[in-house]
Prior knowledge:
Elements: H1 2-16, H2 22-42, H3 48-68, H4 74-98, H5 104-131, E1 136-138, H6 148-159, E2 167-169, H7 172-210
Antiparallel strand pairs: 1-2
Helix pairs in contact: 1-2, 1-5, 2-3, 2-4, 3-4, 4-5, 5-6, 5-7
Amino acid sequence: MLLFVQLVSVLAFPFMEDTALEQAMFSAVGIVVLALAVWAVGHSPASVWISVALAVPAMTILILQAVTEAAGLVPWAEALLAALYLYTAGSLIAYMVADREITRDELYAVGATFTLVAWAFAHIYTWCQVVYPGSFVAAIDPGEPRTWMELLFLSFTTLSSTGLSDVVPVAPFARALVMLEQVAGVGYLAMVVSRLVTLLVSRDIRHSADR
């Protein structure tokens, strides 16, 4: 469910931008993903209380943002959301690593973890853009702040090592954050995906031996 909602949200975000209810719609999606993230942590070896401690203030700020549109709340919301998504991603990785058998849930967890990390860094980039204006530029309207969809796109292309470079970090701190996500993407593929492939191959070998 977490993976499904995130993928549907990616397709829906472009239609939410530049609308009168943009902030309310983004907040509603954020609240749904927050709830699913806490639910996912509950099915992992990690502590649910830590996820709740991050989710409750984040949800409160999202609601306040939707009602008041207060710009001063943005950095706090982005920091809390990034922390929760990274914690949830770590929880899912712990869940995948702890199991010795490959299951369908683990395969979904691979995709959900990837999207969680991508969303977390998109929130980190948004936080960076608010705290350090002009951190990111693009070919279209280079002097304007980048939209959520642009920063999410940057995060996905960075994490997957695609690097299309149409949204570019120009401030030193922004470039440092992008480099951290590049390391995270390489590390995720090297450690998690390769381990699941190994488990899958081992299962096939055992099944062949049993025959």
